[in-house]
Automatic annotation (TrEMBL), chain A:
Lineage, opening ranks: Bacteria, Pseudomonadati, Pseudomonadota, Alphaproteobacteria, Rhodobacterales
Keyword Cell membrane: yes
Keywords recorded for this protein, A-Z: Cell membrane, Membrane, Transmembrane, Transmembrane helix
Organism of derivation: Ruegeria aquimaris
Ranges in coiled-coil conformation: none
Keyword Transmembrane helix: yes
Subcellular location: Cell membrane
Record's protein name: Urea ABC transporter permease subunit UrtC
Domain of life: Bacteria
TrEMBL record, chain C:
Top-level division of the source organism's lineage: Bacteria
Residues covered by the ABC transporter domain: 5-246
Originating gene: urtD
InterPro entries on file: ABC_AA/LPS_Transport (IPR051120), ABC_transporter-like_ATP-bd (IPR003439), ABC_transptr_urea_ATP-bd_UrtD (IPR017781), P-loop_NTPase (IPR027417)
Cross-referenced PROSITE patterns: ABC_TRANSPORTER_2
Name of the protein this chain belongs to: Urea ABC transporter ATP-binding protein UrtD
Sample GO molecular function, one term: ATP binding
Pfam families recorded: ABC_tran (PF00005)
Keyword list, A-Z: ATP-binding, Nucleotide-binding, Transport
Amino acid sequence: MRNSFVARHPSVLAFLALLALFTLGVSVLSEGFGIGLISTSFVKTLGKTLCLCLIAVAMDLIWGYCGILSLGHFAFFGLGGYMIGMWLMYERTRLIVEGSLAQGALPPTEQEVVDAIGTQIFGVVGSSDFPLVWAFADSLILQLAMVVLAPGLLALVFGWLAFRSRVTGVYLSILTQAMTLALALYLFQNDSGLRGNNGLSGLQNLPGVEAPQAVISLWFFWASALALGLGYLLAAWIVSGKFGSVIRGIRDNEARVRFLGYSVETYKLAVFTLTACIAGIAGALYYPQAGIVNPAEIAPIASIYLAVWVAIGGRGRLYGAVIGAAFVSLVSSWFTGGQIPDLVLGPLTIKWVDWWTIVLGLSFVLVTLFAPSGIGGLFDLWQGRRPPDRHGADLGPDAGALREREATE
Amino acid sequence: MTRLMIALAALVLFCAQAMAQETTVQSVLQAHRETIEKGSRTSIGSAIDAIAASGLPQAQEVLQVWAAKEMWQRSDDGLFYRGTEKPARQVELFDFDTGQSFGTVSRDELSQIKPNSGVRAMIGTALVQFQLSDPDPTRRAEALDAIQRSPGADLLAPLRASIPAEPDTALKARKMRVERLLTIAFDPDEPSRIAAIEEMSGDLGVDMRATLNPLLVTRIALAEGLPETANIRREVKPGDPALGVAAAYDMLIAAGQAQPIPDNEARKALLIANMVDGQVAGVPVHRLDSQEARDAAYVQLAQAGLVPRWSTAEAPEVVVTRHRFVEVYSEPSAAVTEAAEQALAEIERRVGLNQAIDLGLDALSLASIYFLAAIGLAITFGVMGVINMAHGEFIMMGAYTGYMVQQVIADHTLSILVAIPLAFAVTFAAGVTMERLVIRHLYNRPLETLLATFGISIALQQLAKNIFGTQARPLTAPGWLDGAWVLNDVVSISYIRIAIFVLALIFLGLFLFIMRRTRLGLETRAVTQNPRMAASMGINPDRINMLTFGLGSGIAGIAGVAIGLFAKVTSELGSDYIVQSFMTVVVGGVGNIWGTLAGAAMIGTLQKGIEWLNPSNTLAAQTYMIIFIIIFIQFRPRGIIALKGRAAGD
Amino acid sequence: MSTLLEVSGVSVSFDGFKAINNLSFRIGQAEMRAVIGPNGAGKTTFMDIVTGKTRPDEGRVLWGERSLSLLGLSEAQIARAGIGRKFQKPTVFEDQSVHENLLMALQGPRGPWSVLFYRPNAAHLARVGELAAEIGLGDHLPRKAGELSHGQKQWLEIGMLLAQDPRLLLVDEPAAGMTPEEREHTTAILVEAAKTRAVVVVEHDMEFVRRLNCKVTVLHEGAVLAEGSLDHVTADKRVIDVYLGR
């Protein structure tokens, strides 16, 4: 079965091969391996980029294939980061606290250890008690489960409410944006139990691991590459079969799918929840490489940027999403990193740090207008694939669905 | 100076009487010479009272002179004079009774009477009775202010005395009110206090609450130590929110009813202190890593008499239940506290009612802001099905236009009058440009419009940041909009908010007029309902779309000026309002101005309501509001006012 | 003849306009029925009600031998119960191939889980080929539906309907915009289908209806005006009034 699947979809094999090659190349050239052509911080950047590619795949699945423009997937991403961050922070603080308490005359009781950890973690928000959400923080297994369960559950509840009331199109996008904002604002509070706007920090240190950051960064890089590879494979498998047919049908004409006897809401909910889980996993791998997770990461703007990446890369094709996320996020960090010399235009000096956002915004408008299939569309040109010429015939009935090139062109 | 003239006139009038009684200021002062010289707070009262009660017309002047440290005493005969310092250590003396000058005398022959601050306060109190009857109404009002600032029992009598003769009706009413308040606080006669409380019950003034609250101050005490007459409010069980177990136990310790017990930390220290050869009471130290093990070791030590006794059975939780704790009023009279409780309850009820009105006004003003911010969005969404993510940035552009106008035109009133049409023009032009360049090409692809306009939004926001910097720019409201319309101590609303409310009403009217009475409105409605049919009837939908988009954007610009008047103008101004605007449109329903109005009213009320329930946390309020809206959508997916039937599409 | 679908006393109004007014209708197990009527007679709304898209204000819609009420069911449940619908405008999934379109419509479990693990077996592929041949698209299986001509899309949609294997087919103006040859083919497909199941055809074109050679129901202002053979109803004075204007 797998053989035939890969054979039917050569792009998947090509992608996996490229990913493996890339991972191997970066590993060999990294500091952790000894050659050191690629600095540890850049390995982290690349690892983070892989995570962003993974969430872009999830976004493509929900938007490009299922037609739901979710402006909330970065909330799931952040939530995943919070979940793993809780364990990392708890465990690291526990080791430190136990170390210092061991200096005392009596061996510490469990309660003393927990109290000391609480004071350490929640001191910044003027508290020392563990809120309920930290109940599983001492268990890696449970917290890893939470990485998938927390975003999945949120997506399930929100999606159930939203899809059940048949909210679609822009309405749904606005609603997901509202959900994201609500979550971000909630986390911004000090009494949310997740350290308010301080967020969780020090996540780059793996508790109990003595290895230097150069090596740890490589581990995470590998994990991210593996996650991306598996995520890509899963997404490709899902969209290749009848399930993919159904969700693309939902994207193009929801009512028709319904009259074929498929429960559109259930399918939407399934895709929404699944992609939320993928986003959570991506976040759980991203934030240990970033070192810190805070509510600002969850702000609606991040989710909109995610849509921008996927749109620039090309919707409705998984490699497009990966290319978009990698390309835009790397170029973004290059421009905002301040390494590009200022552009002097007579009296006006263009500082790229300030002007990059404007360039991004405008180029995004241009892509939407002139290249709806994004960078991925270049592959079509290369393969000589042409969209069907419909001679101005009526397009599908569902306004807002992703379409091939407008017939009037 | 005037006062001196009045004093002189009074002098002439009362001269004969004063002569007849043979009491002079000097004689009164001499009678209390020693206390005045001593200047002690404890004894000086008699001297002040004697002067104040002397009935002499100069009494007020004497007290003022005394308090102002202008009273001098001649060293050789001990007589008191008013003195003004002259150059070269000379002092010119005046007689109190006649006001005549005695010429200048060297300071060496005099001693200055310098009352300390405590004495000056007492003199001030004595002076109040004179000020309360002062011919100048502003001084009488000041005296009342002084009384309210620092009320005292001794002010009650002079205040009461001054009421019948008060000519000014407003001041008289105020005096009576203050008299009631003082009666409640200080009158020794219990029935009259209660009468005053009942009379003032339901008064909304802050001063009334400030008067009642001290009467109801309570403390929690151990019932056993209290006198029979104690005014007890209620019994308190330890563990109540009002009385923690630890606090109750501390009270027992203070009363000698219980022994202090070493807490976990203290016992741990004792365990460490009694460590012998790596063992505590025979238990190896490494095994003391749980509270149970430590407690057991401690009990061992206690049995050996090495540490204070302690057992889990004598825990504070158990001990405190053997005692009664009560909440007692500081005010001894039960009748007074009861009346005060009732009055306060009545006041709180009315305050609650008025707060609800105030909250309603706040919500109304917030609703009008959201309405202004959302109406443009609703127009473009309703007519064209386009969600304009850059709408917030148009609001920001309007606000910055207002700011720029104020840089050129200094007069605030004029600049606002110029800024409103200019902001409309600027954002109208921006909207039309955007429609022509971008949105026109994306009709029927709403999700892509949403993303393209988002691209414009981030570009515009960053552009504003690059031009104006990140710090907030002021947009100052004209002076006549400063201040607030105050109904009572609870209900008030600032004029700016009233102005915004009026502005929102104007726009509602304007919009209705355009839609119902003009050709443009007719064509717009036609395009909204069926663009193809409209086009075939000779309406150019392109032109209509362009104009509606411009109109929606223009209104956003005006909303920007309005919002800028009370919020700081920054590049993020728009994004602060955009989500609420979206929510307004979503909740209200698309394609109907009344829906937008209803949506704005609902969002505004909801936000204020939640803030009122949870005033400390505006972040949480927004979270709850959004959750509420998501749930609301379950019941009315198309908003409050929705198009029905086949026209609504599916 | 046992009744498959019974609609009785159904009314629905939009903003005060009565689109359907006390409509009653019944159809048997294997029967062809043409529904005709002027614009605004309520033909499409009638289909909306049967398929669950519109909820009536009053009335009953009963289905099958066990007289199951359709009013509480969702569109998908009604479709799974055995009612297939073809829209006026051809609605096929233009982005997907004819094969994928037919496969999606093919009778089978509709739950996400079973669909996710679904892989077509030989029998399914054979059925798809058979259907494609029946609707004249046997040579077009790998083509994208968007590339088909208007008539071919209509057929594809009918094919998808047949793939669902419904007991009742609701067909909205199947012949609109077709060439005479295409019409003939469409008629043949429908007549063939009506042998094993109930088919309701909404149509304007009297010639087409005549060729279907079946019982005709005339709708007017949301209610049944006349019912019977085509010749019978066209002789009816009221029907003539309605069609030719008063």
